[in-house]
Write a structure and sequence with these properties.
Layout: E1 12-16, H1 19-22, H2 35-40, H3 58-72, E2 76-80, H4 83-86, H5 96-111, E3 115-121, H6 127-130, H7 139-155, E4 161-166, H8 168-177, H9 192-211, E5 215-221, E6 225-227, H10 232-247, H11 250-255, H12 280-285, E7 291-295, E8 300-303, E9 313-315, H13 333-345, E10 352-356, H14 368-386, E11 391-397, E12 416-419, E13 424-427, H15 429-446
Parallel strand pairs: 1-2, 1-11, 2-3, 3-4, 4-5, 5-7, 6-8, 7-10, 10-11
Antiparallel strand pairs: 8-9, 12-13
Helix pairs in contact: 3-5, 7-9, 8-9, 13-14
Pfam families: Glyco_hydro_1 (PF00232)
EC number: 3.2.1.21
GO molecular function, one term: beta-glucosidase activity
Length: 448
């Protein structure tokens, strides 16, 4: 059986972070207010009242963090730009000091032999745009394209590829439908215009990036969906969930159409609450994707609904280990997911990069649970590439322990331990393991 050392020659190794989770410096150098600044002020919204005000202080400590990446031997660093740091109100001219920070970071990465892979939107919408409707408002898509152009004009000469959106499904559901993340709205299915406007924003931004000769990706959190039983009601419920989680965003991008949402009372050609206008899907689909980012954490098991509301109910996955977060550990779900993408989209599927994969553990430095998790998932990924699925790289989540959204600082995903009181960085056992794996894979690939 193939294993992690058999991943293709030229495979690119990376690690990921996101701006609000690591940067801190929320009031400095002209940065505007974000929806996460506001959400963290809501009593009870974030565990222990934590905020990203300081986070990992990456805004000041980035040279130390780049040195850690160099020690790991990374090919790629996936990070995000904070939209309110670049455009404080989400519109108008760029904030020079904000772009100066990313300019320094990009140059530092390149000096360390690491390719920057920036994400334009990792959930930190400028609060000024949320005040006028956020992603429920069509104008936000146009503001996003303007922001993308500003960022690419400053950094694009050194940044060959960009990710437009991170996990638009999660942002839709947690941010606009259930209120578990910023901006904290609880609209349920009435949140669907935010799905369309994120996609429209992607299409408009992709056109700006392609016009500047840059490659475009998008990062989706995708999950293999398994029915709880062979009962037709469970199978139908699983199909309905798969449509919402995996196809609502991916079908328009790769096929130019929304999936059939009849299970949600919206019909086979949904307009998502009147948000879809003539020509929109062409704007979403036409720019094309140069790569698909896949964030994989676990499968989802689905049963028929037991009460009115949505046409599915989530069921537990039993008999498997669980992360510190309580998520099931199912490495074989990764190649299962990749096979589904291959079979579903065929020639329309672009090359894949695993843009997030990792687990939370306790605060110990001897994080054997993480090395086991990464080992088993990378071995499973090697099986998928051996079957001919085109996966070009892997970014683990995350380089650093960081602010884990509504969980605050209670979940630690990093290869590097961060003491949030002192900001001291201490590499964990998994850091050394990942460093040695990257070196061993390169040595084996060189000898092929």
């Amino acid at each position: 059986m193939p294993d992690r050392y058999d991943l293709p020659a030229g495979f690119r190794w990376g690690a990921s972070t996101a701006a609000y989770q690591v940067e801190g410096a929320v009031d400095e150098d002209g940065r505007g207010r974000s929806v996460w600044d506001a959400f963290c002020e809501r009593p009870g919204a974030v565990k222990n009242g934590d905020t990203g005000r300081t986070a990992c202080d990456h805004y000041r400590r980035w040279p130390e963090d780049v040195a850690l990446m160099r020690e790991l031997g990374l090919d790629t660093y996936r990070f995000s730009l904070a939209w309110p740091r670049v455009q404080p109100t989400g519109r108008g001219p760029a904030n020079p000091a904000g772009l100066d920070f990313y300019d320094r970071l990009v140059d530092g990465l390149l000096g360390a032999g690491i390719t920057p892979l920036p994400t334009l939107f990792h959930w930190d919408l400028p609060q000024a745009l949320e005040d006028t409707g956020g992603w429920l408002h069509r104008d936000t898509a146009h503001r996003f394209a303007e922001y993308a152009a500003l960022a690419a004009d400053r950094l694009g000469d050194r940044v060959p590829a960009w990710i437009t959106l991170n996990e638009p499904f999660v942002h839709l559901v947690y941010g606009y439908a259930l209120g578990l993340h910023a901006p904290g709205r609880t609209l349920m299915l009435d949140a669907l215009p935010a799905a369309h406007h994120q996609l429209l924003g992607h299409g408009l931004a992709a056109a700006e990036l392609h016009a500047r000769g840059r490659d475009v990706l998008i990062a989706h959190n995708l999950t293999p969906v398994r029915p709880a039983s062979a009962d037709p009601a469970d199978v139908a419920a699983a199909d309905a969930y798969d449509t919402l989680h995996n196809r609502l965003f991916t079908d328009p991008l790769l096929l130019g159409r929304y999936p059939d949402l009849t299970a949600y009372g919206l019909g086979p050609d949904p307009d998502l609450g009147g948000a879809v206008r003539d020509g929109d899907l062409a704007l979403v689909h036409a720019p094309g994707l140069d790569g698909l980012g896949v964030n994989y954490y676990n499968p989802t098991r689905i049963a028929a609904p037991t009460e009115p509301g949505l046409p599915f109910a989530e069921a537990p996955i039993d008999g498997v280990p669980r992360t510190h977060f309580g998520w099931p550990v199912v490495p074989e779900g990764l190649p299962e997911l990749l096979r589904t993408l291959r079979d579903r989209y065929g020639a329309a599927l672009p090359p894949i990069t695993i843009t997030e994969n990792g687990c939370s553990t306790d605060a110990t430095l001897d994080d054997t649970a993480r090395t086991t998790y990464l080992t088993t998932h990378l071995d499973a990924l090697a099986q998928a590439t051996a079957e001919g699925i085109d996966v070009r790289g892997y970014c683990t989540w995350s380089l650093l322990d960081n602010f884990e959204w509504a969980e605050g600082y209670s979940q630690r995903f990093g290869l590097v331990h961060v003491d949030f009181a002192t900001q001291r960085r201490t590499p964990k056992a998994s850091f050394a393991w990942y460093r040695d794996l990257i070196a061993a894979h390169r040595a084996k690939a060189a000898g092929r």
